[in-house]
What we know:
Elements: H1 2-6, E1 12-17, H2 21-32, E2 37-40, E3 56-57, H3 61-65, H4 69-85, E4 90-99, H5 104-118, E5 128-130, H6 132-138, E6 149-158, H7 160-173, E7 177-179, E8 184-190, E9 193-200, E10 207-217, H8 223-230, E11 238-249, E12 258-261, E13 270-275, E14 278-282, E15 286-288, H9 299-312, E16 324-333, E17 347-351, E18 357-361, H10 367-381, H11 403-409, H12 425-434, H13 440-447, H14 450-453, H15 455-473, H16 477-492
Helix pairs in contact: 2-7, 2-10, 12-13, 12-15, 15-16
The site of flavin-adenine dinucleotide has 39 residues, from helix 2 and strand 16.
Amino acid sequence: MIARLADVRVPWDVLVIGGGATGLGAAVDAAERGYRTVLLERGDFASATSSRSTKLIHGGVRYLRQGNLGLVRESLRERERLLRNAPHLVRSLPFVLPTYRPGERAFYGAGLWIYDKLAGRSSLVGTSLLSPQETRERLPTLRADNLRGGVLYHDAQFDDARLAVSLAQTFVAHGGVALNYFPVVALRKENGRVRGVLARDTESAGEYEIAARVVINATGIFSDEVRRLDEPKSRALLTYSQGAHVVLPRAFLPGDTALLVPRTDDGRVLFAIPWFGRVLLGTTDTPIDRPLENPRPLSLEVDYLLEHAARYLVRPPSRADILSCFAGVRPLLRGKEGQTSQLARDFAVKVAASGLVTVAGGKWTTYRAMGEAAVGTAARVGGLPSRACATHELPLRDARPQLDSLLSNEPSLREILHPRLPYCLGDVACAIRFEQARTVEDVLSRRTRALILDAAASIEAAPRVAALLARELGRDAAWECAQATAFTTLARGYLPS
Ligand SMILES: Cc1cc2nc3c(=O)[nH]c(=O)nc-3n(C[C@H](O)[C@H](O)[C@H](O)COP(=O)(O)OP(=O)(O)OC[C@H]3O[C@@H](n4cnc5c(N)ncnc54)[C@H](O)[C@@H]3O)c2cc1C
């Protein structure tokens, strides 16, 4: 990838800064339209917000309650596309909303019926009302006192960091160049117009001048930071809110149905979701004043999640039950003061006087629509030939097609990584050889989801992963040891204090 980046005599058509959902979506869109495109990510792909979501591809029951029907409809359309284009990573998930007061079942049933209608012709099963007994059959660990029934509906669930890998691979397969650990440190201008960037290769410390006809800033919560490389005094486009999750053993919610709590004390919705043999509980909404690179769940957030779960589950979960906890920061638009071009949606595409195109806000579910809007604008700004978006029906690359042949050629890679984790050494080797994993954290946090599934087990697995990485990447013993230590320090923060 670095060789391809360096071996270019004419400017790239499109340069995307940021390798989260938004940047990868824009990069795939640009490459698919036939533009020569490069994407640079400061850390690992999806290492910021895009690996820390609740892992739902959804219209947003919350937006439905706010009456933002246009947004719900657009998200549901994208949900359908993702179910079709990435069936290996996005799947239907049944949810039950339990009801305890008279009239609640009809009220929420009507709301979710509208949700179904907004989805149009959807492949997902429609909403239905459940008796108390049917509700308990779906959610056997639900508290039954005063239970009046429930509403069953369907939405979609995915693996966020793996979808990011799948997008990166799709992008590369369509001729793109994607580099992780490659921060953009400055923008390059000619006559006041952005014409490229200065980027650094973190591993070699080498610096690269990269010329491009148009630059897209897709850096999520860091968007204002990059905008200020362009205009140091530009007004903030974003505000920030942290959301925390805790991960519990499957016994708290056996079966394949998720639980939706429609209204928490602070008026939010709360999910308990089966995910890779564990239960994901989230999320919170804690305003914060600046973007954080490594957000950690606050003790108060963990208490809030456990307390709400305890109101619904027969056995109240405690801190001792937590396998892992993690947090992410939402990039939220400030509103009209930013003079954006797409205010009807929850994301914005903004063009600076220099031609820098910033795309921010939104959610994972709408990453493709965001990419489409950003690249449409970027093509105009960069004077690129007009070409239609072609991602609506674009299948995304399958995860790990190489694994089977790897395991038959190298049987030693069949060995399991850790008794409490659903991975073998072959998964680690695939991550290193085919998915640009460069660190123990890349492997255990995002190529596999070991850190989220069981933080303590991931710490125990770290030395083996470090050894395999060192062997595959030709690193020495000191590097191997430093990698295992750095991961252990990070992963301890995923255990409740
Ligand atoms: C708690 C929580 C739960 C959520 N749940 C859901 C959900 O269930 N469903 C859903 O659809 N959405 C959900 N979302 C929203 C969704 O996760 C985000 O909207 C999405 O991940 C944002 O992606 P992004 O690419 O814009 O930002 P990011 O993922 O933050 O990516 C930006 C990238 O830019 C990189 N970068 C920054 N500066 C530079 C630089 N100078 N050079 C190079 N790279 C740089 C960063 O390293 C980062 O990787 C949730 C969000 C949160 C916080």
